[in-house]
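Tutorial handout. Part one gives the primary structure; part two gives the three-dimensional structure as C-alpha cells.
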Amino acid sequence: MEISVAAPQRLPFTIKPRMHRDKLGKEAMVLGSLTNIKSMSETLCFASVDFGMMNTEIQVVCHGSELCQQLRSIRLNSSVRVVGKLGLKPAPKSAPKPAPGNIEHQEPLEDLLTHKQVEVVATEILCLNSVAPDVHIGKDHSFPSQSRHLQIRFDESLKRRLLLRSRVARYIKEYLGKDFLEIETPILFKSSPEGAREFLVPTRKPGYAYALPQSPQQYKQILMATGVKNYFQFAKCFRDEDLRADRQPEFTQLDLEMAYADGEKVMAKIENLIKSLYLKVSSKHPAISLYPLPKSDFVRMSYEEAMSEHGSDKPDLRINGLIHRIDYFVPDEFRSMLTSVQEPVIEACKLRLNCESQQVRTFLTKFMDSPDAEPFTSNVDGAPGFCVYDSRKPVEGLQSLGFESAEQLKTLYGNLRRPRYHDKKVHKTNTRFEDADLLIIQARPNLPHSGGSTMLGKLRLALHKAAVAEGLIQPDTDHRYLWVTEFPMFTLDNDTDPGQGGTAGFSATHHPFTAPRTAEDVDLLLTDPLKAKADHYDLVVNGIELGGGSRRIHNAEMQKFVMRDIIKMSEERMDDFSHLFEALASGCPPHAGFAIGFDRLMAVLTGVESVKDVIYFPKSSKGEDMMVKSPAPMTNAALSPYHLQLKSPTEP
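Part two.
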C-alpha cells in the first residue's frame, strides 16, 4: 500500500533589519509594537510596526474593510503579529521620474534590503497584548522612575546608550577572549575587611551570614594560584556607601588579573583596550560624537604631582591653569587675611576667561553667592582670595599682594616649565598675564598630601565648571586619559572609611593586598610606613577615575606581615584571610590586575554625568529601586528563620 506524506507546511520568515532580496514576494511575519496607523480610506490603511530596539519600524499595508477595521481597533503601542507578503516600498510621488532605461528608482540593485526599503502587505493581523485602557503611553509622555520600563521604551537617547552598553561589553569580551579566560566568581562571599562597608546576607545557620563581594579581589588572586594565567569577567560588586551621581550600591566592574605580570604589562593591556574600543565606537557609532584617541601613550603622573599641580588625585587635563606654591613671597599681612593656620602652605592657580575684567568680577560674585561656594567660604583653614588681572588698575589688579610680591608672582609664572601634556599655545597662556585672568589663592596646613583632593583643587574644578556653563571658557570635548601612579601605601584613619579594622591608626589606601612599589618602600614599612608608596595605578579621564589596579603581594609571609605587623589586624581578623594565605603559600606566581568601573566607562563614552543614565534598572540616591520598591520592609516572621528580629523603637 502506498502511503502519501504531506509536504511540511512552510512557515513565514521573520522580518529582520536586513534581508536578502530573494525574500521579496514571500510570506513574512512581523512581531513587534504597533506605533502608527494612517487610515487612507475604509479599505486602505498604512501602519508602522517597531520590531526592534532602535529605529526598526517597517511599513504594513492593509487592504479590505474587514482587515482595516481590525487594525484600527488595536490601541497604539500594543504587541501585534502581522503576516503578509514582502514587497518593495513604492518610490514617493515627489521623487524625480527615472530616465528611460534607468531602473535606479524601480528597485535597488544590492543583494541586501533594509527594512526601510520594503513593506508587508498584510493578510493577517493579530493583537497579542493590548495596552490597557487606563494606561497612557507614547513618545510624548514623560515617565517617572517608577515606570522605568516605559522610560527605556520611549526615551530614544536612553535606549541608544543602553544599546551601546551591550555592544561595548560584547566587543570587550571579544578583545580579551583571545588570551584571557572568562570566569565567574561567586556572589555569596563572606565578610572581609577590604576597605568598604558590606551588605550582609543572613542564613538559617544561627550566627552565620554571607557578605556580597565588594569586588572579586580575593577570588581573582586565588585564581592565579590555580594555574589560570589571565582572567577576566564583568563582575557585580556591592558596597554599602553614601551614594552620589557616579555611585550605586551595586555596580559592574570589568575585572582582570594577569599572572607573571607587573603593573607595566597590565597598564599596557588596558591602554590598548581603551584605544581599540574608541576606534571601534567612533567608527561604528558616529552619533556618539567620539573620535579615536591619539596613538601616543597615555600621560603618566605621580600622586604627588597630581595633588600638587591639580589639587586632585584624578586630574582633569582640560583645565589648563596649574597650581603653584607662592607662600615664600606672600606678605604677612595678606597671609593673615587668608588664614589663621600657622606657617601655612599658600597656593595659587590662574584661569583665563573669555571676557572683560568686569564680567569676571560679576561671574565671581555670582559663584561665591551660590550654594556651590558654601564649602569654600566655610573652610576652617580660611576662605579663598581672588585677584582679577587688569592692566588699568593699580599694581595691575594684584594690589592685595603688594608691588614686590606681584612682580615675584609674574616672574614665577614667566619661568614655568611646560608639562608634557600642554602644547605651546596652552603654555603661552599659562606663563603670561592678560586682562581678565582670574588668580585664585588658597591656604592649607603644611602637611603631606592625603586623600583625593585639596580645597584649592576642588575650587579650581568648581570655578572651571561654572565658567564653562556660563560660556566664559570654551568647552573641551576631548577625552584626556592619564595614569596616576605612586600612591601612598597607607592613609590615616578617618570617620568615613571603615578601613581594615587594624589598630595602627592607618589603613591600606586601596586594599591590603597591594605590593610596595620598590625595595626602598619595603624598607620604609619598618621605619615609616606612611611614607611607603604602593605599586598602584589609577586610570583617569577628564577628572573621572575610571578604574584602578596594582601589583599584588604574592608571598604569604609578606602578606601576613603587612596585615599583622603594619596595619596591626587582630588574629581574629587575620583568620578571615586564611584561605588567601594558603593560596599564596602554594607557589602562587607574581601577578597584577585591574578593574574598570564599567558603568562609569559607559557614562564617559555616551557623555552623561550620572551612571544611572547607562544602567537598565538603577537605584535612586537613597539606594532604592523605585520601580520594584526595593529594599522592602522586613517583619519578625520573615526574619525568624534567620534567627533575627527587629529592634524595638524603645531599645537603645
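Part three, for discussion. The mean pLDDT is 91. The first helix runs from residue 65 to 72.
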